[in-house]
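seq as requested:
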Amino acid sequence: MKKTEFSKQPIMISTLLIFIVSMLGWSIALSQSDSTVFLPIISRDPDRVIHYVSKSGNNANGSSWATAWNELNQIDWDQVNAGDFIYIDGGSSSMTYETSLRPAKSGFESKPITIQLATESGRNGQAIFFGGNSIPLPECGQRTWDESELENAEEWGIQLRNEIKYIVVDGTKRSGIVIHGFAQSGVRFFPDTIDNGRDDNPQNITLRYLEVYNNGEIERVSDGSVPDLYFPLHSRPGISLAGSGHTFEYLEVHDNAGDAVQSGFTNPSGGTFNNMDDLTITHSWFYNSRPHSGTDNSPAGETCTQNDLSGCDELGAPQMAQDYQFYPDFPNNRRESFNWCTHSDGIQLFSSDDFNNLTIEKTIIGPNFMNGLILGDRGSANATAWVNNLVLRDVVITRYMHNALGMNNKDGQSGANWNVDHVTFYGHYNNLHKGSLQFDLVSNGPGHSLTNSYKLYGQSSFGTDEIEFANNCEYGMYKGTINGIEADPRFRRLSNGDVFESDLNVDFATVFRDNYQPTNPLCESVGSRLTSVEDLLNEFK
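struct tokens:
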């Protein structure tokens, strides 16, 4: 009897030690007979609950992988609270979800709600949010296109509705969460539409390690002189932005109908109160990878090619009226992206009165946009906008069709404190009237600086106000100056010639191998210290 009681003693002690170690979050090894028990590190927030989403779950209550909610729209938000985690199963290689993620609860600053790709082996593949359209969007002026899938597609991949705050969506690695095939945008931030004196826009949302592509609507246009033509709709960006305090990290946004990131207009008279401030974008890549076929589907008399200038404007580009997206003219001596006619930009912001505090760092914008950055725009006479306190640092803006950085608000009210440092602006070498770098439309605001930057080709204009220039280089400028040393950068690796202007058959992928590190000793320390897509992707997990 005593021997039996004595044999139980180590087990009781072990159990007690396990409990103590678990509470303290330590990891030790207990030896009992010939076996060793390793205790995992356990460090638990008593208020945090983990929920699970998996196509292989039975959709019972989301409390385990076995009982996981089996679709994004099946998440029971009544069970989710601030500080909770929602793990999404990515399968061994991938797992596809076919509904929209729509958070219905908010977190707090110290306890956000985190929606995250699972990290355990066998579930950390790729979580794919698929809207229903697997067919690549039509190029500008495409003659035939299959609408059947898009007609039934979900509208948005992630919906961030009014009053939603402190949500983190984290793919944990490059393209850990992929969002494609939606009929409107990949991610939609919904603006405040109620005039109650309170800012009910979504706030403090973090998007991390997402890939967003092939989202957007199309238009079918009948000209009369040609059969129906198809176009990607210009107002359908990859990410449709509203609200304040957001952080975008390690994103790839490409080949959507319109811009990579675009905010909606603010128009109080029309019931839209899209107040925006404090946006940070880091370690991200916005681009278009699909080339236009080069086919000119223009109606008679509206051609703009090297041999027929009848439809060209004074700058040698196709005439574009207000409904410019309906013009399928394609100059047959240069290469542009499939959605070039939709005014496809990297980032375009329409804000209310002013947008304070925009920071973009370690990011590549391009290739193949019409404009790199349009920071402030006017949707109507009652919807002016401008951006204050811009920090643009270690950024490459490359191979854009029109402008690198500018502002479209011409109402005499403008932003202040645009600070551009270590940025490389690389434009078209034989499209000289394009490639603008414009501070002149913000010349009423003080505090602008352009330092340690490289501007190649195109033109620059800065108005009459004093701007701080320091340690810049420039090359092949058509008009204007950034007060820099005139020097060919002799970049470390650059695609042969300018692929957009010289060869309709070139593979767009060649420009992704460019390296914008200057080798000219006069300017070796100038321009973005992030010099290539390869460098950027090496910083992704």
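The radius of gyration is 27 Å.
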